[in-house]
Amino acid sequence: MPEFLLYPCFVLLGLAVGALGTLLGLGGGFILMPVLLILYPHEPSAYLTATSLAVVFCNAVSGAAAYTRQKRIDFRSGLIFACAAIPGTIIGALGTDLVSRTAFNAVFGAALVAGAVFLIFKPHGRKEAQIDLPAPGLTTRSFTDSEGQAHTYSFRLRTGVIISLGVGVLSSFLGIGGGIIHVPAMVYLLNFPVHIATATSIFMLAIMSLSGVTTHIVNGTLDHGWLTIICLAAGVIGGAQLGARLSKRLKGRGILLVLATVLIFVGLRFLYTAFK
User: Fold this and answer.
1) Which run of H or of E encompasses 265?
2) Phi, psi angle pair for 251, to nearest 5°
3) Of 48, 64, 69, 87, whose CA–CA distance to 236 is shortest?
4) Closest by alpha carbon to 70, among 151, 171, 163, 148?
5) Which pLDDT tens digit goes with each residue over 3-18?
6) Residue 143 phi/psi, 5° resolution?
7) d(Cα 262, Cα 239) in Å, to the nearest integer?
8) Which of 45-59, 63-77, 202-216 holds the top average pLDDT?
């Protein structure tokens, strides 16, 4: 099929990527990367991760704007975590040139399946009604969203910074933006409410993905395919607004289960392509 016939499909794909990516706080790269790898089997993984990160950036900016109106973003924590992840995003972006497509598919699939297994078998997530009081060594956040719901939670800031550095490497290397790791870590390890974690993750993705894309541009990886990126971006911008609205209607546990289901499907698909 001539590539120009794919451009309208790219807009629709971007719409789906933006909606689901923003709903789950992941930026949509975990959906887009498998599609790009299938459509462009002969392109190097570095180019495809760069393309994915560029679209994730557009998705994250649109989603962050929507979540800002809902007052669900923890800007202080998100900015600290995103800045901690930036060195990792640069390392990850440079590292994609060092692996073959087969090795990349195997690592990508294993990472997705591992994340899904963690979400499914973790006994209990954070209860939405739980209130965490200030304690020594903990950072406490307290604010009210646009619907009048109060959120109070405490976490270890140093732990979040360390996690973010590692997330930066993996997210940029895999081209998925990092929310796929950040959201579960924020919920289970840092005690964030699920809806705050997804919204804050989207805000962080805007900063992290911009860093990764800039590295790819400077490195000369992203030297073509801009029309494809523009079509995908046009879709994700609208889809991100839709995803933010849908987030109001889903319970936190429901969001995590949707995430786990998608991760298993995509991860197994990549493991199959790597080892067939």
Assistant:
1) helix 252-275
2) -70, 155
3) 64
4) 148
5) 667 788 889 999 988 8
6) -160, 170
7) 18
8) 63-77
